[in-house]
Amino acid sequence: AFVNVALTLCDAGDSVVMFAPYYFNSYMSFQMTGV
Fold this sequence. Notes:
Layout: H1 2-9, H2 24-33
Helix pairs in contact: 1-2
């Protein structure tokens, strides 16, 4: 579900702020989408 949200809201090259600690799968989903 999180990957669908990332694909919908973010475009390739966008910047995203993630606060630590974060879930590993959230970080990987942003890497897969090119954000």
